[in-house]
Amino acid sequence: MAGGHGMNRYARQMVLPEVGAEGQARIEAAHVLVVGAGGLGVPALQYLAGAGVGHITVVDPDTVAETNLHRQPLYLETQIGLPKAIAVRIALTRRNPAVRVQAVLDWLTPANAPALIEAADLVLDCADSYAVSYTLSDCCLDLGRPLISASALGLSGYAGGFCGNDRHGRAPSLRALFPDPPDSAQTCASAGVLGPVVGMLGCLQAQMALSVILGLQPSPLGQLTRLDAGRLTQFRFDGAPEAAGPRFIAASDIRADDLVVDLRPKDEAPQKATPDALRDPGYGPAGPLPAPGQRLVLACRSGLRSWRAADALSRRWDGEITLLALGDPS
């Protein structure tokens, strides 16, 4: 693939001693899973395809919206309403026909994550979703896949390298660095975001991904880069101990004997998580305890209220707690 025309395309990166013909062959042999084709995913995808990553799987259930265009310059006004994963496939294939782009028009959930992650060499978390980040981290830790995860809010954010198994060992997971639920429940939609901020973080994710593929040292796995009002700071967390915490499950994983508590009020979600779920937005510090040996499932939209309720409940109950992020009611 890197013969003739291909060599010419990648000449400017192949001249780097860190890349060369061997590194380029590694890049072309790599399969990268990118979850999320929004403000973080768009720049990451463009630079990965530009570098010649051979196989890219992009997972995103959303369609292009007018409010995306200011920070997702890959999309055109004429594509409003088109699934983002399809728009990405069209754009990247047009720019570099040698790259195979697979579009998955779905949410990333604990049900489909293992198979998607197992098929890939490396995972990029560009979804900026609390439940997706922890689902990917738990799965990547289980399967030994490296994870490059980023998050942006307002004028700040971070990108970090987690999990993975390489000759230098395994990097800690996202839980090791962020064991507690964040204080802010805000999202880009509610807090706002500037295009270049997510653009910088997405580019950083692509750079970290290529560094992992090329085996560059120091490894980006075990390193966090923070962006705060235009200033970048970095630190390493290689020795951080793993933290236990409630795991996310898929709706299809709910068992008949689970106690399901839906934390969403009726006006937010007229239909409960399951027909016999207990609807209790204040659950956690108070509320009925599960029976001995019974598993508890805490359900909400993003997973954040569930995590906080689990945190409060764990102080008065030591049984199994799982989390369910249901997303927006369809």
UniProtKB/TrEMBL annotation:
Segments of this protein annotated with the region Disordered: 265-290
GO function term, MF aspect, one: thiosulfate-cyanide sulfurtransferase activity
CDD domains reported in the protein's UniProt record: ThiF_MoeB_HesA_family
One Gene Ontology CC term in the entry: cytoplasm
SUPFAM superfamilies per the UniProt record, alphabetical: Activating enzymes of the ubiquitin-like proteins, Rhodanese/Cell cycle control phosphatase
InterPro entries membership: Rhodanese-like_dom_sf, ThiF/MoeB/HesA, ThiF_NAD_FAD-bd, Ubiquitin-activating_enz
Residue ranges of every copy of the THIF-type NAD/FAD binding fold domain listed in the record: 10-233
One Gene Ontology term from the biological process aspect of the record: tRNA wobble position uridine thiolation
PANTHER family for the chain: ADENYLYLTRANSFERASE AND SULFURTRANSFERASE MOCS3 (PTHR10953:SF102), UBIQUITIN-ACTIVATING ENZYME E1 (PTHR10953)
The protein's name: Thiamine biosynthesis protein ThiF
Organism (species): Paracoccus yeei
